[in-house]
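On clarity, I found the account of how folds are encoded harder to follow than it need be. Since the whole study asks how a given chain folds, the encoding of that fold should be made plain. For illustration, here is how one protein appears when written out as sequence plus structure tokens:
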Amino acid sequence: MLTHRNVTKTFNARTLFSGATMTINHGERVALVGPNGAGKSTLFSLILKTDTPDSGEIVRDEWTTVGFLPQECETVGNVTVLEVATGKAGEIERLEKQLSDFEAAGDVSSPEYFEAHAKHDALQDPQAEAKAKRMLKGLGYLDSDFDRPARELSGGWIMRAHMARLLVMEPDLLLLDEPTNHLDLLSLMWFRNYLKNYPGAILMISHDRDFMDELVQNVYEIEESKLISYSGNYSDYLRLREENWERANQAWKNQQKEIEAMQEFIDRFRSVASKAAQAQSRERQLEKMEKLDKPRPLRKGFRFNFPQPPRSGQRIITLTDVDQAYGAKQVYTGLDLEIERGERTVLVGPNGAGKSTLIKILAGEVPIQKGERKLGTNLKLGYFSQHRGDSLDPECSVLEELKRVSPEIREDEARSILGSFLFKREDVHKKCKVLSGGEKSRLNLVKFLVDPPNLLLMDEPTTHLDIWAIEGLIMALEKFEGTLVFISHDVHFIRRLAQKVIHINNGKLTTYTGDYDYYLQKTGAEENARAAVVAG
């Protein structure tokens, strides 16, 4: 279906790929992994023909159609959600212009013409609207949302409408760039189960380990400008990668011992007449030997020791008979909740159910309209919001900001921690006032780790992190001795940390005193998601 042959690509004088080779077959599920900046998005651009390789070629089967879901969605005009999902928000018009241009030029036999025709036919199919509605419902929309103006919705919800349109077109090859970023757990489960039965091939970039483990059959890693193939899912890739490194490291060690022994023989007997010929032979052998490079250490989640918070009282925080509304929308009525010391609780439920509102109520970020919020003794509360940047001194550098909250930390340790959370080299000297939203989010996260509260409230802490930074965060939080309440759509993150689940829907809280798998078993959420795909 798609083949990369000896592809070389440089960007800003840096070689991203050199002689890279990759093959994707019909129906195959493939993940593309590598650190930020390795060239994953560039590879997508080459496949989509929005960029060209410096050398080599990318060959696509003549009749193959390709669909792309970017990380960020395009803006929408005065159109409804359903019009976005059915392509009536400009996609059909764009395809018709493409076809008209091809036909005017007499070019009606090119792969590009066939692809545009196939996508146009899919969106014009009489069943397209019904299919779009099924996709939208699976992705979390209500029937009443279909005719809503899309511009009233958040970027995440608009992205879901674009995702639905892509599924309606059903291209032969789906390119997905971080597809789970804007999905809650329920829509993520539906999407994952839908993709398990998807008739085409899938190539994805993702930081969601659980998502990749459930779907992919092959992993390509970008490593030292090469594309290295591993059979199996993401966990298989980690195991095989470790085994390959161990073999390469052992081969290097063995060769070093051999080189050392040969050099010792040469040095010892070079001047001994009876052994001089043997020494010269060993010297020539050593010169001709193909030296192995010492394998670079594998990148893993960063481990570091951080101070533990002061011990709090047993009863951390209590909400009693709390009401909360935003305008005419009543979020909670008569809410009661108690958080105790040492609990690790994840809040789950559909988008808009009130998870972030509850975190903000617990944090004291929004004044409650009725009821009582009571804090326990010796409480040191920390609230991490993915959009929070007002706690940063705009004139401090990243490094200075970290040392401001933890003066005793050594600079080399501070740099290592910041590096593991994607602040590389000179990034540590950037002023906080010029940081992006994602950079501010990551810096706040590091600040919590080096000066932790004993109640940590976290809203989507893995956003803006790559897979290794997420692993480092997990390892840090596993050692955390305080109380944790968090929201996340990263199933691997939830599985590693949550010991209690609170499901929120329509202002009602249901508590499950077990881990995430216990919650799934009790609610039948997985079975419901599979049934929704079958029904669709």
Remarks:
- The first helix runs from residue 40 to 47.
- The chain is about 40% helix and 20% strand.
- The CA atoms of residues 478 and 497 lie 7 Å apart.
- The first strand starts at residue 2 and ends at 11.
